[in-house]
Amino acid sequence: xxxxAELRGQPEMCDTLFFCGVEGAVMLSVRLMTGLLLxxxxxxxxxxxxxxxxxxxxxxVVRVIDGDALVLDTxxxxxxxxxxxxxxxxxxxxxxxxAEKSARMxxxxxxxxxxxxxxxxxxxxxxxxxxxxxxxxxNSGPDYWINLELVRRGAVRVRLxxxxxxxxxxxLEAEEVARSSVRGLWHESAYRPVxxxxxxxxxxxxxxxxxxxxxxxxxxxxxEDRRRSILCSRQVEGSDLIIDMTFNARPACDAPAGKPYLxxxxxxxxxxxxxxxxxxxxxxxx
Length: 286
Hints:
Strand order of the largest sheet: 1-2-3-6-5
CATH architecture of the largest domain: Beta Barrel
Number of domains: 3
Helix content: 25-40%
Structural class: alpha+beta
Distance between the termini: 43 Å
Shape: globular
Oligomer: single chain
Strand content: 25-35%
Number of strands: 14
Order of helices and strands: HHHEEEEHEEHEHEEHEEEEE
Number of helices: 7
């Protein structure tokens, strides 16, 4: 290895390495410092999806209903958007698999803590629940973007609606990591992606399916209102499942046939309603 004293008298190497004597060392230090500052600047310029949302009210969490719903000390109920937790269900129904663990994960993150709401679009549902992302907003524990943290821990799945979908791509990236690491509910067969050909005809519920799209299919005939919301319907290769894509999922209608996809939506009567373009993920590009 050549050190500075050995480089003196070799100007061509000095020009290449910028490392000859004191001047070279200073120049190298300046170059390194400049590079570090540029990297730091790039990192700081990356904006969080929360920055594009409307800041909302603050409150202390006094109750957790499910892994995606809670109540503040103001009395306001909050439905965390972009995610779907297993339901504890009511008095007469059994809880969904992993429901209690999912709810406890949310309790561990927020119970008794002050949080801040961020609205990505629609602010209330028909039950007057706030539709929001939330962050911790006190000094009693780590800072969390709760919706994202629940996805990272495998407490919930991602489920997007067009009127509250901001931040959806970030959530889906985190879900892929949690699923590949088999965290939380991804241990449960009820939530892991199921091949379309293995889906039972009686299956009902929000489901993630792996499939290859086929050609166009007939739109649903029984429900007139639902039929008017469907832009296109597609067959699935090797399965009786039909994918009904709503007007909100317009780009998904152009997905090429024969490629492998991960699709998510509500399944009933061997039909899936896909109502967001990000609910169709091309497995060839992941």
